[in-house]
């Protein structure tokens, strides 16, 4: 009875804490400007099914894809097992699904065990790639202390959770063989039965092992759940809405700023009466709140895998730009703003901004707008849009474009071409051989 | 080779005669002013003449689409250019546009509709593919590319930007050449380094220039010809080949040039 009460308290606290943090992230995301991503729901569901559920963009890197797939399937399926643990915890039952499911239960537990081994393998491979092989993608200036340890914490936690799960089953299996107490024969234990010889033979020692692992496993999962909002691992939840709200246009198509359309129309035709497009706001983005909620959602979805940076021509040739860093900076900044709101109220200004305090102009001007990063991202994140918005701010609000680009602008304006040639010479090519 | 001067029809002339061409050839700034690109422009005209499509150009009435301004963040300038161009295009009642520049292609196709310009836009490689499919273009009577190792460099704004990967390859496939792919190609293609207005500024500091990285791919593929489909890629690739002292071994040719040569135009 006491165990049940303790369990219910822990479970309630974990869920409460988690919802609080998720609500905070949601609030932060909604600090962004509006953008319409609700059209064509049919297509959106398909994109989500393919990219998030079907992992189609992962396959470009086969080793990572297979390993990630193990963890991903493991995660989804093991949730079924967690459901049983929750019910058992609340009602003080033991393996409540065993009787009603019968043979199917045996099969399921067997499958979970196999998956647990696959997850363990994948986590070990991933740990090696990061810490032993030092894969290039996982280094880089933005991969500082925290992002590095974050990845390791996730992997180590998953290893611990899986080990606890298998040890718990092994003890249970042994107790079943002893026909001890309520440990009646349930399920088949293809993996943990192999571990059984490592455990003590005495029933009471086994019960203690089983209980300790049970608590460790479930409390571990609840802690892990609450770690998510602070971690890149949050992508396991956000990958779904993030792909649902994907950009469905051609990648080459940049947004046309409606506020500019009004001004340009008024310039070209003095009799034009501008449409009301709401508050004027700022051209482009200086800080994260000038970006759209979708940009901010992407920042929280980024898994820091670095596939974008790995294919970025600017990054490859040693320039300062790393699209992954653009996403991480955006997230760090919006989180900072969120924390400021919590501490000092809604209108607090800290005098900082995404531009200059986080992202330098040198990074922004290195981009060739090639869309390689957008193509590479396994969860359809678009770092290029943020880069473009920030360039817009620098050019239109500050008039601080590099001098050579200002020359280009004035050439376009005065000669109708980015080079300094006369408009009258534009058709000279027709005279040539 | 036919060396008679080409008479290039302009929209103004056509309109004066009360005629409307089937398609407008949008030449673009590079195609109008860049010495190398002007040859490609003329080759596109030769192809249009050869297959008898009625077309015209805007000539001195054409203006920059605003692409470099837009990528650099100058949305004002972009929209000014766009609206002025749209006025001219609509003034001539233009419905269909072909262009030799993926940047013009992308901008007019994707971004002009948002400011009131709606046209059917195709890239010259798509036109060539169509003409091949319709049996109007063959690859006969001209230079033979048989047995040459050719590779194709995907321009970002044609490939990733607009998912046009097959059309340019189709134009090479009928040549009976050995078409080899670089290790980074199609949606994984590497940028030439000119996009996003980089063409008009010095690159930011780094280890090397992007076109050098790209030329290494060409060299690795052991290609004798690298086919381009964008005037900016053309400049970057040509500079890269020069920089590596490989002008004798590697030629950079636009898909339109290759097609014109193969057909003896
Ligand atoms: S679009 Fe810009 S940031 Fe993205 S890969 Fe290309 S150069 Fe890098
Ligand atoms: S933006 Fe996408 S590709 Fe880049 S690190 Fe984040 S998840 Fe990976």
From TrEMBL, chain A:
It comes from the Bacteria. The keyword Transmembrane helix applies. Residues 293-323, 357-387 form the 4Fe-4S ferredoxin-type domain. One of its GO terms (molecular function) is 4 iron, 4 sulfur cluster binding. GO terms for cellular component: plasma membrane. InterPro entries: 4Fe4S_Fe-S-bd (IPR017896), 4Fe4S_Fe_S_CS (IPR017900), HdrC_iron-sulfur_subunit (IPR051460), Helical_ferredxn (IPR009051), NarG-like_sf (IPR036197). Signal peptide: none annotated. PROSITE patterns: 4FE4S_FER_1, 4FE4S_FER_2. This is (Fe-S)-binding protein.
Automatic annotation (TrEMBL), chain B:
InterPro entries: Cys_rich_dom, HdrC_iron-sulfur_subunit. GO terms for cellular component: plasma membrane. The keyword DNA-binding does not apply. GO terms for molecular function: 4 iron, 4 sulfur cluster binding; metal ion binding; oxidoreductase activity. Residues 24-109, 150-237 form the Cysteine-rich domain. Signal peptide: none annotated. Keywords: 4Fe-4S, Iron, Iron-sulfur, Metal-binding, Oxidoreductase. This is (Fe-S)-binding protein. It comes from Mucilaginibacter rubeus.
């Amino acid at each position: 009875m006491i165990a049940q009460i303790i369990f219910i308290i822990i479970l309630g606290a974990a869920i409460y804490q988690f919802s609080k943090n998720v609500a905070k992230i949601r609030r932060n995301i909604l600090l962004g400007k509006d953008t319409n991503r609700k059209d064509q729901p049919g297509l959106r569901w398909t994109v989500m099914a393919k990219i998030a559920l079907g992992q189609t963009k992962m396959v470009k890197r086969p080793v990572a894809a297979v390993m990630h797939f193990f963890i991903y399937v493991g995660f989804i399926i093991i949730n079924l097992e967690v459901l049983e643990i929750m019910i058992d915890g609340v009602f003080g039952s033991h393996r409540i699904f065993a009787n009603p499911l019968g043979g199917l239960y045996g099969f399921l537990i067997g499958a979970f065990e196999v998956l647990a081994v696959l997850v363990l393998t994948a986590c070990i491979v991933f740990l090696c790639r990061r810490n032993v092989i030092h894969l290039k993608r996982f280094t880089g200036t933005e991969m500082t202390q925290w992002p590095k340890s974050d990845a390791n914490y996730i992997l180590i936690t998953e290893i611990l959770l899986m080990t606890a799960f298998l040890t718990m089953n092994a003890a249970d299996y042994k107790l079943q063989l002893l026909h001890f107490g309520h440990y009646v024969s349930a399920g088949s234990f293809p993996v943990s039965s192999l571990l059984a010889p490592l455990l003590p033979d005495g029933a009471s020692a086994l019960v203690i092992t089983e209980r300790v692992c049970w608590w460790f496993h479930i409390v571990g999962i609840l802690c892990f759940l609450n770690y998510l909002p602070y971690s890149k691992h949050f992508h396991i939840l956000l990958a779904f809405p993030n792909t649902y709200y994907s950009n469905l246009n051609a990648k080459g198509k940049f947004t046309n700023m409606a506020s500019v359309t009004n001004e340009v129309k008024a310039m070209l035709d003095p009799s034009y009466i501008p449409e009301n497009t709401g508050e004027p706001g700022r051209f482009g983005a200086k800080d994260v709140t000038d970006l759209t909620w979708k940009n901010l959602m992407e920042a929280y979805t980024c898994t820091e895998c670095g596939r974008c940076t790995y294919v970025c021509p600017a990054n490859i040739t040693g320039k300062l730009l790393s699209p992954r860093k653009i996403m991480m900076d955006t997230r760090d900044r919006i989180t900072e703003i969120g924390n400021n709101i919590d501490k000092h109220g809604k209108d607090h200004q800290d005098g900082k901004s995404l531009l200059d305090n986080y992202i330098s102009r040198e990074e922004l001007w290195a981009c060739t707008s090639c869309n390689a990063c957008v193509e590479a991202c396994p969860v359809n994140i678009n770092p290029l849009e943020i880069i473009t918005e920030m360039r817009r701010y620098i050019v239109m609000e500050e008039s601080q474009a590099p001098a050579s680009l200002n020359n280009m602008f004035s050439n376009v304006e005065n000669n109708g071409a980015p080079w300094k040639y006369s408009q009258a010479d534009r058709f000279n090519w027709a005279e040539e051989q | 080779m036919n060396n008679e001067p080409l008479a290039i029809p302009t929209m103004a002339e056509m309109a004066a005669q009360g005629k409307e061409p089937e398609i407008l050839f949008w030449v673009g700034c590079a195609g109008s002013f860049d010495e190398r690109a002007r040859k490609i422009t003329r080759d596109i005209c030769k192809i249009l003449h050869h297959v008898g499509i009625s077309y015209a150009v805007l000539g001195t009435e054409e203006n920059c689409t605003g692409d470099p301004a837009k990528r650099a963040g100058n949305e004002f300038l972009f929209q000014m250019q766009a609206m002025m161009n749209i006025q001219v295009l609509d003034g001539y009642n233009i419905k269909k546009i072909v262009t030799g520049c993926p940047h013009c292609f992308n901008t007019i196709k994707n971004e002009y509709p948002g400011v009131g310009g709606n046209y059917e836009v195709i890239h010259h490689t798509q036109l060539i593919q169509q003409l091949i499919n319709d049996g109007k273009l063959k690859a006969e009577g001209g230079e033979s590319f048989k047995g040459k190792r050719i590779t194709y460099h995907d321009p970002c704004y044609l490939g990733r930007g607009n998912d046009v990967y097959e059309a340019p390859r189709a134009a090479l496939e009928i040549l009976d050449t050995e078409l080899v792919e670089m290790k980074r190609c199609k949606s994984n293609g590497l940028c030439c380094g000119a996009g996003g207005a980089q063409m008009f500024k010095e690159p930011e500091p780094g280890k090397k220039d992007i076109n050098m990285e790209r030329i290494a791919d060409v060299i690795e593929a052991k290609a004798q010809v690298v086919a381009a489909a964008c005037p900016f890629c053309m400049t970057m690739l040509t500079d890269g080949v020069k920089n590596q002292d490989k002008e004798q071994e590697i030629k950079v040719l636009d898909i339109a040039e290759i097609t014109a040569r193969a057909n003896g135009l």
